[in-house]
Fold these 2 entries.
Entry 1:
Amino acid sequence: MSLPDVDADVLVAGGGAAGLVVATRLALDGRSVTVASSATPATLLSTGRILLDHDDPEAEEWASFFLAQFRRQGAHYVMSKRPVVAITNLGTGMRQSLTSPLFDWTSKDRDVAVVGLVGNSDLDPDLVSLEMGRSRRAKPRPYWFSPSFSPELDPGGFAEELGNVLMNDVAEGTVVLPPLPHNTPYGLLAELRKRSGKKVVEAATPLSWPGRRFQSLLEGTAERLGVRILRDRRLLSIDVNGREANRALLSSGVRTQRATFNGLVLATGNVVSGGLAVSGREVVDPLGLFRVSSARASGISSRQLRATLSSGLVTRRGKAVTTDGVSLRNVFAVGSLLRGMSYPLGRGLGDVMVHAWEIAPAVEEAL
Ligand SMILES: Cc1cc2nc3c(=O)[nH]c(=O)nc-3n(C[C@H](O)[C@H](O)[C@H](O)COP(=O)(O)OP(=O)(O)OC[C@H]3O[C@@H](n4cnc5c(N)ncnc54)[C@H](O)[C@@H]3O)c2cc1C
């Protein structure tokens, strides 16, 4: 069983932060781009909080383009001059460069109440308060609230009820909530802010709505520029012809799909996302085509974990190198698939996206 063939200037395998950024920049330059992505990206699991190299002009270029695109989709971020410390849902600190002054909880906030919602395990106010007291950060006051309405099924009822409680029963001026679902990014927080008259923010939280929202902002940006995103599509194999590749096979379940292209970008992530795999004690390329090696790394006590996270595809001038040592002239690799780029050894989303932004002109040159 096969799906209709795909033909594009550039095929991007992997639709996380790296793949979507490179695809967006190529589409901006008028290229036809298809992204094929197989499963949940690490981007969606992350906190969506971004640390950039503030001295890098490319980071500024990336930010000025993407922040304008995000604003059009209802998410208002600013790039701070220096990193700001965000507070996580565990009460720990985390540096970030892009902040939404309206909705991010940061160490600058004073007079803070942390409100847990019964049934929502993303934020435990007692735990946060304990951790912040222990690390001598300003200790927030913990509250619990049991909502009668589901924020997902009845956002209006939820906002009205909680808005009244925050206005009448919470003394503090800043209220921290767990991330809430809504069809516009941060829509419910804005509504609660209006109803309660308080600053209502959320903690930096992985495996929850912030990562999903960030993923959907990136997908929205790419699609607005004409990028075609094929979800549930795995790159199965690549036909290599001498020093280049122009054909690949994709799959969705039992169905396959042929793809032809002038350039290929591998953005399939690290072991977390399936772009790399572990075989015995080795990290390998699951396509069995490319060379993998590890970078020097420190900072993680487990030797195995460090070796896994520091491993990645070998590239020469951005081009993927095969196990025979040939660098393919039109096949590039970006993102956490590269050695040394995996979080927390690399800076995470910020490095991944700026690198993907930088590499797009080289991809175009190779077409
Ligand atoms: C729990 C968690 C929390 C994190 N928190 C932070 C944080 O707070 N700040 C930060 O900066 N970074 C954080 N990170 C790291 C950050 O998420 C990653 O650095 C970044 O998302 C990597 O982006 P990527 O595009 O390289 O990979 P991904 O986002 O993983 O995208 C790769 C995509 O390729 C797909 N794929 C794999 N193989 C194939 C194939 N053969 N064919 C087609 N598609 C394929 C995968 O399914 C996936 O969808 C966190 C990561 C995790 C897991």
Entry 2:
Amino acid sequence: MPRKTRLNRIAEIVTKAHESGRAVPTIVLPCKASPTGEIRLHRATEKSRFPGDVQVTDGRRDGNTWFGAINHRTGNMFVARETPAAITALLVEFNDDPAGVGARLGLSVGSCVFCNRALTTDESKGAGYGPKCAERFDLPWGKATAVADVAEDYVTTVIRPRRLLAERIVEELLLEDGHMRPWETAVDAVERILAGE
Ligand SMILES: [Zn+2]
């Protein structure tokens, strides 16, 4: 496993959240590979050794496990030696799609991963995070949220195939003269289509 991983999108959204007024933006991702069941990403303060970098830990207040740090300028993450591969993998996945992965993880625990508050409104439950976090962390809000994705998936995987099936059945049942096929052969024809033949 590489000891260096490029996570520039995470660096960007944490920096953006800081610039829009959160002193210490903190993202909490549920993760079974961490001893506490979560990984916590927070922006190092100005007083720290590497201000602005994103520190990745298991979130314990004292004696926490340090998984690594993301350079806020380059996005390069230095990964600590003992960090489980599953944690790096989750960070890469989150970096590739902070809104989508954040929403999925948020919905799985019922709270926003970007502020750790419970998802209460229908809007937030639909999106997987709240409108304020969307604004602060530069995430899509409105149509381009998790709900829209789920609806699109549903259309592609359920509605469209069903429609095609229905069209095939109608085609099979209608004879060229516009009459319906005799009942005795119609049932067999439909069953063949449903069986995928
Ligand atoms: Zn939030």
